[in-house]
Every structure is written in C-alpha cells, then in structure tokens.
Amino acid sequence: LEPTERERLASMRERRAWDVADVVSRMLSRATIVQLPGVDEKSEGESEVSTPAVVPLHERLAQCDARGENVKLIADDGDGGIELLLVATRDIEQGEDLTRDYTTAPRLVGDETEGALHLLLQFGLPPNAWH
Q1: What would the pLDDT profile of 40-60 be if each residue is shown by its tens digit?
Q2: 102: left (phi over 0), alpha (psi -120 to 50) or beta
Q3: pLDDT digits (tens, 9 = 90+) for 71-127
Q4: How far apart are CA 105 and CA 124, in angstroms?
C-alpha cells in the first residue's frame, strides 16, 4: 500500500508497523557482511568478526555474473582506527561494472528463499540481474 492508502485504511498502530517494516526492508536490501578485526576470547588471539553494515557506494553496485564479484569490502585496522576499503578481487576490464554478490548479504531470521526469488524479494533486482 502507498502511504496515503495506509492512512485511510489502517489504525495509527498499523501505520507505524508498516513504516517500520518499510525502513527495515530498505535497510536490509542495502546491507552487506563486513569482516572486522576482533579478539577471539576462546583462543585469546586475534580473529575476524562478521557484522552487517550499510556502506555507501557498495550498496549501489551491480549483481555479479557467473565470474563472481569483482570487488569486495575489507576492513583495515590502521593507526587511525578501522577503515573499510573497496578492493578488486580480480582484474576488471575497462568499462566493466563494479559488482558484488548480493546472495551473501544478511537475511532475516527464517528467510529461506533462494536464487532469483531471493534477489527479487530482498533487493528488487530485476530478472536480467539473476545470473
């Protein structure tokens, strides 16, 4: 429903629920998993911690084809704190789009959709992006 339709047909509580669902959907469709440096308490050593994040630019990249993503995010634990870097995973041809693999993005608990349906429902990616 469009917001104006929601106002006519729903209670205030229902409108708030729709608004929250809309925000969560938009956020989840832009999220990615980032490996951050961390400390593994069990082994008392350094390790990587996976965390979801929304990263400007990365959220706008095209879906990869059969060759896989050509860039990925990495965390660099430098002197000034943690920086996220977008690095190439393979040679990128002139004119080739920068791509990521949307199938590895965070999911809602219980979401078992796969392949094209997952890409359509979570990201709104059209059929021509379903490689």
Answers
A1: 556 565 677 778 888 878 778
A2: alpha
A3: 988 888 777 777 888 899 999 999 999 998 877 777 777 777 777 666 666 666 665
A4: 14
Buried b vs exposed e over 83-101: b needs ≥16 C-beta within 10 Å? eeeeeebeeeeeeeebbbe
- The counts of H helices and E strands in the chain are 3, 6
Place of tokens 């359509």: 120
Spatial neighbors of 51 by CB under 8 A, at least 6 apart, are 33, 34, 36
Cα-Cα-Cα-Cα torsion 59, 105, 85, 99, nearest 10 degrees, comes to: -60
Token pair 């996976």 is at which residue?
50
